[in-house]
Design goal:
Blueprint: E1 3-7, E2 14-19, H1 26-33, E3 38-44, H2 48-61, E4 65-71, H3 80-93, E5 101-107, H4 109-121, E6 127-132, H5 135-141, E7 146-151, E8 154-161, E9 166-170, H6 179-196, H7 198-206, H8 208-212, H9 216-236, H10 251-261, H11 268-285, H12 291-303, H13 315-325, E10 335-340, E11 343-347, H14 352-362
Parallel strand pairs: 2-9, 3-4, 3-5, 5-6, 6-9
Antiparallel strand pairs: 1-2, 7-8, 10-11
Helix pairs in contact: 1-2, 3-4, 4-5, 5-6, 5-9, 6-7, 6-9, 6-11, 10-11, 10-13, 11-12, 11-14, 13-14
The structure holds glycine (GLY).
Glycine binds at residues 140, 144, 146, 244, 247.
């Protein structure tokens, strides 16, 4: 059942292992990195006493002196203050830390982002590993080395591309994941299918019940397929100069919706689901994909219990938020639209009228 996917990045290559019970292999995996004497396990406060503790115990059983540091769960805490608190706590426990320190991120994507940035910053960079415990982190955030924190001016504005030394995806941790968070990760799985692999959409459609029930073997296959897609995209464009932006499919309108209705009011996956519906609608209007292709994606999202409609959105407000993003993109609103299921392109000629039409259609 266990599968290994290599993220091919030359000297910065690493393996993503996907299997059941892998959290207990953390110590052995850390030992294989060589010269790891101390570890700081940065664990999401929701799972610190369960998975965080197991991570520490596994490291200790391999002779690594491990200490746990709790990250106060949630996007709202992805701040300079939390980052600074973690650095202070690590130096307080181990004032003589050196490059043999290993940082371990244990939790969802937010914990991985913060812990990775702590690793990138401590002593100008120490090794780190990821033990993701949410589906979104399994299939997306834990792969590719994006680390960072938010700033009052916007999300993820402070950070670094800093690849981990390894990722252990223990599918058993999904058993305790709230259903809403499971669905959030499933939105990213559909995204990967649309951008790179039509057969993944078939796999999701054929295994929907098993996926929603988190059956271990099916989840291993699902996660491994998604990690392979993400790994290939990252290997082709580590620092998002080009094709890595394909991973933003569904996110432009999705982020605008999250901003408008409020983070926490709608899950990231739900917002991305709506964003994908809007993008597909625009692609159909442009004659890029057939209505039947858009319907396939909609069916998959609905079967996974993700939203495909949302009433009360103000299309003008959505466009305004999308335009505010344009500052970072050379003055034009850019969107990723499908050219077929499994293939996308980036368009920078997006206009207000087509976005308004697609957003109105969500209602
Ligand atoms: N989650 C998008 C990326 O890693 O590029």
């Amino acid at each position: 059942m266990e599968q290994t996917i290599k993220v091919e990045l030359g000297a910065r290559s690493y393996d993503v292992r996907v299997g059941a019970g892998l959290l207990d292999s953390l110590g052995a995996a850390a030992g294989e990195l060589g010269s790891v004497r101390q570890a700081a396990v940065i664990a999401d406060s929701n799972i610190a006493s369960s998975y965080g503790r197991r991570a520490v115990e596994s490291l200790a059983s391999s002779g690594i002196n491990a200490t746990m540091f709790e990250y106060p769960s949630g996007e709202a805490n992805k701040t300079l203050a939390s980052f600074s608190d973690l650095i202070d706590a690590i130096f307080a426990i181990a004032p003589a830390i050196d490059r043999d320190l290993l940082i371990v991120a244990c939790g969802g994507g937010v914990t991985g982002d913060v812990a990775g940035y702590v690793a990138a910053s401590t002593l100008r960079g120490v090794r780190w590993m990821q033990c993701p415990t949410s589906l979104l982190a399994d299939v997306d955030a834990s792969v590719g080395g994006k680390t960072g924190i938010n700033h009052a001016s916007g999300k993820n504005l402070i950070g670094a591309f800093y690849q981990p030394s390894g990722v252990l995806v223990d599918v058993e941790t999904l058993k305790t994941l709230p259903p809403e968070e499971l669905r959030s990760g499933l939105g990213e799985c559909v995204k990967h299918a649309v951008i790179r692999d039509a057969t993944l959409l078939d796999f999701i459609a054929d295994n929907t019940r098993a996926i929603l029930d988190c059956q271990c073997d099916v989840m291993c296959d699902l996660i491994a397929r998604n990690v392979a897609i993400k790994a290939a995209v990252v290997a082709g464009d580590e620092r998002e100069a080009g094709e890595r932006a394909h991973l933003n499919f569904g996110h432009t309108v999705g982020h605008a919706i999250e901003t408008i209705v409020g983070y926490g009011t709608i899950s990231h996956g739900a917002a991305v689901s709506l964003g994908m519906i809007a993008a597909n609608d625009m692609a159909v209007s442009r004659g890029l994909i057939a209505p039947a292709d858009a319907a396939c994606v909609r069916d998959a999202l609905e079967a996974l219990e993700l939203p495909t409609t949302y009433s009360g959105l103000d299309a003008e407000q959505v466009w305004d938020v999308m335009q505010r993003d344009k500052k970072a993109r050379g003055g034009r609103v850019r969107m990723v639209l499908p050219a077929a299921i499994g293939k996308v392109d980036i368009f920078d000629d997006i206009n207000a009228a087509e976005v308004a039409r697609a957003v109105a259609a969500l209602g």
